[in-house]
Structures are given as structure tokens and as C-alpha cells.
Write a structure and sequence with these properties.
heterotetramer, C: mainly alpha, 2 domains, 3-stranded antiparallel sheet, 6 helices, about 10% strand, disordered C terminus, D: mainly alpha
Chain lengths: ~325, ~100, ~170, ~90
């Protein structure tokens, strides 16, 4: 009974996801596509909960729906005047439909042909008690596959540098993003003054809880980035300019601490990025705190975009 | 198992839909959105595959979280490029498609 | 001013501390982390929203049940209208004179607007100068008493005296 | 007993969500629809939170659920005003 009910819920959820995704790609108007994409992100987060991946659900809701949504909505607001006469191709693009259908069919075929793993990595269950944290996803991110996470934090920086390269020469010393004009004493300003302290607590808690429960540096960092963005959009704080030393330090803090820990591991323990068993917990906490700071600042700056002077088109 | 197949097939369909959207869209922002749909579909497919064993495997989950963050970084860069393109050319479509009937 | 500041620190510390306690509760390590996190949040709060008005907590506590009851009535009222075969609607804008809300500082006016938006029949759409713009579902309803009453209660919570004339800010 | 309370309150919550959606579809203009969305959905979320709270294992969990509802209330109060204002501006009203 319960299993059948669960299956019905899964089927309904997937149907809803596909319907919303169809509205994203085929609906008229860019704005509608963006709004449906945000709805899609929230539904996808529910799907992750159903797949027993609460860590991923948190990341999807905060990043996939939240920050990506802010990014796309802001971009749509800027491009409204340049909106193309037609945002979709004329008529039904049969070749595109054929290509998409073929891709989906190939993936579907592969699903049923794939060998099923007997058990997910028995080595992992064995190693987890020595990892220093109880949340297996955090253990993978910061200990077993720390290499991936270190490189990812550098990829984020590279993307940010790419975004900044698109600033115009004269705007280089301006504050990041477009100037915001929330009315002082207005609704947004009031909201932006009340929410950030609460968001700060939630972000810190997510990072801390990530050691043993769902959460972690990425989810908590995203919440902290969102706190900063709300305050900027509400006009209660001004974003810094690119060269502000304190903020540059915050950007590189995470990768730098991570790298230092890696080198320390090479000297003191088995090799690069190998955390010595007794120090695993404090090492992970240190790395995670530094990484959270950098992730929060980098994501907020990525969403703000390159600096732009007042009145620039 | 049946439920996992539902999610995996949904992921596959999302990849197809996103690919279709990427080809069919003219507006560059729509292409960024469609590209995100492809990524998200792949994550779902991968995540369903990660749950096929006896217990959910945390390694793919960690990789998916990494992927979601990188997707945001790539989207931010793409959006900045779209804005720069609009500023330079005054339109949000690519030049070769401007004269299409 | 100093007394005001101390009170603000105490109040915000209590509220944010309660939130932290709710988040991290049974874990002693998590509660200990609150010794760092809550002061940081209080400092951020004081920076974004400097203490200008005393918050009178017991008035807030007295106001809460009324607010909850009002938002339940508001939800029931709008659900009744939505399900009714002939929707009893007469939507329109009403003119709220600046007198009850005009003297309120910006933040309190936003709170008033948010509260009115959850009360039966009213929806705030920001301000036009000193006038609060309020949309109502039923123009026949009697709002000329309820809106000033909400405004007075909010003013009382922040210890704002209406008899002291203030500029439009 | 707790299960019964959960069932009852979540069902009640769903009724209000349905009311919000019906209002969104049936009401004649943007502002009236906002009334329906804000008020009915908030009450719906409140009842669902109440229903879920009966399944909580500790008071801390109940407090967390309450916090979620309070934050949603705060957001609803702010967003309703922002959307209403934006719609009013587009109409050239204020």
C-alpha cells in the first residue's frame, strides 16, 4: 500500500517536472521560461529528497532554483529592451526535436543496459569512521575526494575572473554589479534590514550541521551569499570594487587553506591532501570554514556580475 | 527499483528536452536556461543510478553537488557574455540567425 | 540613546538566540557555537537596522495572538470567496488618510503593510508619499476603523507616540 | 492519535492551498489574485506545518517547523507588497 502510494507520488512528481520543463523550453517569452525554470528547480529539489539525497536537495534548492533564478531574472531585466522579435525558432524545428528525442532515447536505453552495482563502495563504509565527520557526503567532499573539491574552488575563481574580464575599462573601479535603487524606507529596504541576521544564523548552522547531517560548505555558503545579495538588492549595503583587499582575501582564503592543508598532509601524513587520522576532524572544520567564506563571497560576486557605472546601457 | 527507473527516465527526457531547447531557442538567455536543464537532467539520471545499489552512494552525490555549483559558475559567465553581446550588438540573438525567415 | 542601545542588544540577542537554539537545540556543541554566531548576527542586525526605537516586547507578545487570529480569518475569508459560486467580490482601492500611518518610520510602515496584507480583505501596495496604498477585496467592508487600529498597535510596539508631529520620513 | 492529527491538519492545509489556487484562477484582477495567494497559501502552509509538527521527535524540531512558517509569513508579507507595487507601477497607477 505504502509502496504503491510512494510510486504514485514519484510518477506524479516526475510528470510535473517534465511538464514544467516543457514550459521552460517551449513556452512563449523569455520571462516565462526563467520563471518556469525556477519552479523546475524547486520541484527537482523535492525529487532529490525522494531519492534519499537531502544534501543534493539543499544544494539544488539554494543554488539551482535560488541563485540561478536571481541571476537569470536580473539578466532578463537588463535585456528586456533587446528582447528579440522572436525568442524561439519559427514553426516546429523538427531536426532539433529529432536530436533531443534521440538523445533521450539513448539515455533511456543505457539505463536498462547498465550493470547494477552490487553494493556502493564497501571501502567507503569501512573508511567512514576514520573520516572525521559523520555525513558521508561531507566526508567525500572534504576528505576522500578532496582533490575534486579543491579544484572546484579554483574553477569558481576562474569563472569569477572571466566575468570580471567583461567589465568595461572605465567601470573597473566601480562597485560590483549594477547600481541598485531601492527606495529608502520602502518594502525591499525594510525586508533587507530584517532578514540578513536570520539568514546568517541559518547559513552558519547549515555549515556546522553539515559535519554529521545534511548541509555543508556549499549549502551554507550559498545561504550566506543570498544574505549578501538581499542586502545589496535592498540597497542597505554597497558591494565592494574588484580591488578591495579584504574581499580579495576572502575569495582566495578557501583554496589557500585547502592547499596548505594538502601540503601539510604531504609532509606529515601519507601524501598530498591526505588528512592524518587523528587530525581529520579539526582539519576538515578548518578547511570547511575557510571554504564557506570563499564560496559565499565568490557566488555572491558571480551573481552580481561585472562592475558597471551608473546609467550605462 | 521501479521508482528509480521513473527518475532516471525523467532525467533522460530532461536531457532531451534541454537539448531541443538549446537548438530551438533564438534568444541567448533561453539557451542558457536550456543548457541548465540538460545539466540538471544529467544530475537526476546520475543520482538515480547512484541509488541503485543497496544504499545510496555518497560519492556520486558529492559529485552532483560539485556539479550544481559549477553549473551556476558557468551560467554566471554565460550570462555575463550574453549581456556583453547585447551591449556590443544591440540584440540578444546570434548574428547568423538575424536574417532567418 | 545608550539605554536604547542596550535594550536593542538585549532584545535582538534574545530573539536571534532563540532562533539559534531552535536550529541547534539538543546538541551542546551546536549551542556553544551560538556564542559566536548569535553575537555576530546581533552586530549585523544593529548595523543594518540601528536602534532608533525601543521595541516593547510585552506589547509585541500581546499583539501576536491578534495577528495570528487575523491571518486565520484572512485565509478563511479569502477561501470562502474563492469557493463561493458567485464570488462576492467588489475589489478596489481605498484611501487611507496619512494620519494613522504617516508618522510611522519606514520599517514600521513596511511591517504594517505586511500585516495588512495577511489580514482579511486588505493588501498593501507600498506608499505614495505619506498615503498608504491599500487594495481591498470588498469595498463594502468596514476598514476605516481596522486599519488605524493596526497602525496604532504597531506604533505602540515601537513606542512611537503619535502626538509628536514628525516629518514624512 | 498523532497520525490522525497530522492527517487532519495537512488535509485542512491542502484545502487552503486549493482555495489559493482557485482564487488565483477565478479572481478578476492581479491584486485580488494576490489576496488569494498570500492569505490562503499562508494559512495552508501553517496547517501543514502544524500537521507535520505532530510527527516531530523533539521540541527543537517543532521550533524549527515554526521558524519555517514564520519566515514564510515574513516573506509573504514583503513579497505581496512588492508584487502589488510592481503591478501598480506597470499600470501607471501611483
Amino acid at each position: 500500500m505504502t509502496a504503491a502510494l510512494g510510486l504514485a507520488l514519484d510518477a506524479a512528481l516526475c510528470a510535473l517536472i517534465l511538464g514544467v520543463a516543457l514550459a521552460v523550453v517551449a513556452g512563449r517569452g523569455v520571462f516565462r521560461a526563467v520563471v518556469f525554470f525556477i519552479v523546475y528547480g524547486l520541484l527537482a529539489a523535492v525529487a532529490w529528497v525522494r531519492l534519499d539525497a537531502v544534501n543534493v536537495a539543499l544544494a539544488e534548492a539554494a543554488i539551482g532554483a535560488g541563485l540561478t533564478g536571481v541571476l537569470l531574472l536580473a539578466a532578463h531585466g537588463r535585456l528586456r529592451r533587446a528582447e528579440a522579435a522572436q525568442d524561439l525558432a519559427h514553426g516546429m524545428p523538427w531536426s532539433a526535436a529529432l536530436a533531443g528525442g534521440a538523445l533521450a532515447a539513448a539515455l533511456g536505453w543505457a539505463w536498462f543496459e547498465m550493470p547494477i552495482p552490487v553494493e556502493p563502495g564497501p571501502e567507503l563504509a569501512e573508511a567512514l569512521p576514520r573520516a572525521g565527520v559523520g555525513n558521508p557526503v561531507t566526508a567525500v567532499l572534504l576528505n576522500f575526494r578532496a582533490w575534486d573539491t579543491l579544484l572546484e574552488s579554483i574553477v569558481l575563481l576562474a569563472a569569477l575572473i572571466g566575468v570580471w574580464m567583461l567589465a568595461r575599462e572605465g567601470d573597473w573601479r566601480e562597485p560590483l554589479g549594477r547600481p541598485q535603487h531601492a527606495r529608502p524606507g520602502g518594502v525591499m529596504a525594510g525586508f533587507g534590514r530584517v532578514l540578513p541576521p536570520v539568514g546568517l544564523l541559518v547559513g552558519v548552522w547549515l555549515v556546522w550541521a553539515g559535519a554529521d547531517h545534511p548541509g555543508g560548505a556549499f549549502q551554507g555558503g550559498t545561504v550566506l551569499a543570498a544574505v549578501g545579495l538581499v542586502a545589496v538588492l535592498a540597497g542597505v549595503i554597497r558591494p565592494p570594487w574588484i580591488g578591495a583587499p579584504l574581499w580579495q582575501g576572502a575569495l582566495v582564503l578557501g583554496p589557500a587553506v585547502f592547499l596548505l592543508a594538502g601540503i601539510a598532509g604531504a609532509v606529515l601524513a601519507g601524501g598530498f591532501l591526505t588528512l592524518p587520522e587523528g587530525f581529520a576532524k579539526p582539519a576538515i572544520v578548518t578547511i570547511e570554514v575557510a571554504l564557506t567564506v570563499s564560496i559565499a563571497v565568490t557566488l555572491a560576486f558571480l551573481v552580481l556580475g561585472p562592475p558597471e557605472a551608473e546609467g550605462a546601457g | 527499483m521501479a521508482a528509480l527507473s521513473i527518475y532516471a527516465l525523467t532525467g533522460a527526457a530532461l536531457v532531451g528536452l534541454g537539448f531541443f531547447g538549446l537548438l530551438a531557442a533564438r534568444h541567448l538567455l533561453r539557451r542558457v536556461v536550456a543548457f541548465n536543464l540538460i545539466g540538471s537532467g544529467l544530475f537526476l539520471y546520475f543520482g538515480a543510478a547512484a541509488t541503485r545499489g543497496a544504499a545510496p552512494d555518497p560519492v556520486p552525490q558529492a559529485l552532483i553537488i560539485t556539479g550544481i555549483v559549477v553549473a551556476l559558475a558557468a551560467s554566471a559567465l554565460a550570462v555575463a557574455l550574453v549581456v556583453a553581446q547585447v551591449r556590443a550588438a544591440g540584440r540578444a540573438t546570434l548574428p547568423e540567425e538575424e536574417d532567418a525567415p | 540613546m545608550d539605554g536604547l542601545w542596550i535594550r536593542a542588544v538585549a532584545h535582538r540577542g534574545a530573539m536571534l538566540g532563540a532562533i539559534w537554539a531552535a536550529l541547534s537545540a539538543p546538541d551542546p556543541e551546536g549551542l556553544a557555537l551560538g556564542l559566536v554566531a548569535v553575537p555576530a548576527a546581533v552586530a549585523l542586525s544593529l548595523r543594518l537596522l540601528p536602534a532608533r526605537h525601543p521595541l516593547i516586547l510585552w506589547r509585541l507578545a500581546l499583539h501576536l495572538p491578534r495577528f495570528l487570529a487575523g491571518s486565520v480569518t484572512g485565509g478563511v475569508d479569502v477561501a470562502r470567496r474563492a469557493f463561493a459560486r458567485k464570488m462576492p467580490l467588489d475589489p478596489g482601492w481605498i484611501d487611507v488618510p496619512p494620519e494613522p500611518s504617516g508618522g510611522l518610520p519606514g520599517g514600521a510602515r513596511v511591517a504594517l503593510g505586511g500585516e495588512l496584507s495577511l489580514m482579511p480583505g486588505t493588501l498593501a501596495a507600498g506608499c505614495d508619499g505619506d498615503r498608504l496604498l491599500v487594495h481591498v477585496l470588498d469595498r463594502g467592508g468596514r476598514f476605516d476603523a481596522s486599519i488605524p487600529r493596526e497602525a496604532r498597535e504597531i506604533a505602540a510596539i515601537i513606542g512611537h507616540r503619535r502626538d509628536r508631529p514628525q516629518g514624512g520620513a | 492519535m498523532a497520525d490522525l492529527a497530522t492527517l487532519l491538519f495537512t488535509a485542512l492545509g491542502l484545502v487552503f492551498f486549493a482555495a489559493g489556487t482557485v482564487g488565483l484562477i477565478r479572481f478578476p484582477d492581479t491584486f485580488s489574485r494576490l489576496h488569494a495567494l498570500t492569505k490562503a497559501d499562508n494559512l495552508g502552509l501553517g496547517f501543514i506545518a502544524l500537521g507535520v509538527a505532530f510527527q516531530a521527535e523533539s521540541w527543537a524540531q517543532v521550533a524549527r517547523i515554526a521558524l519555517i512558517w514564520v519566515l514564510a509569513l515574513l516573506a509573504a508579507g514583503a513579497v505581496a507588497q512588492l508584487v502589488a507595487r510592481a503591478a501598480l507601477m506597470r499600470r501607471g497607477g501611483a
